[in-house]
Amino acid sequence: MRGAEAQRIKDVNVAYHDGAATDYDSKWNIQFDDHAHRMVVEKLTKALGRRPARFGRTLEIGAGTGYFTLNLLRAGSVEEAVVADISPGMLASLAASAEQLGLEVESACCEAAELPFPDQSFDVVMGHAVLHHLPDLDAAFREFGRVLRPGGQMIFAGEPSRYGDRIAHVPKRAALTIAPAWRSLVGAGPRVNGHAAEAEVKDLEPFVDVHSFTPAELDRLATGAGFESVRIAGEELTCSWFGWLNRTLEATAEPDEVPLGWSRYAYTGYMVLRALDHRLLEPYLPPAIFYNLMISARTPDETAAGAVEQQPLQSAAAR
Ligand SMILES: C[S@@+](CC[C@H](N)C(=O)[O-])C[C@H]1O[C@@H](n2cnc3c(N)ncnc32)[C@H](O)[C@@H]1O
Question: How many domains, in total, are found in the chain?
Answer without folding.
Answer: 1
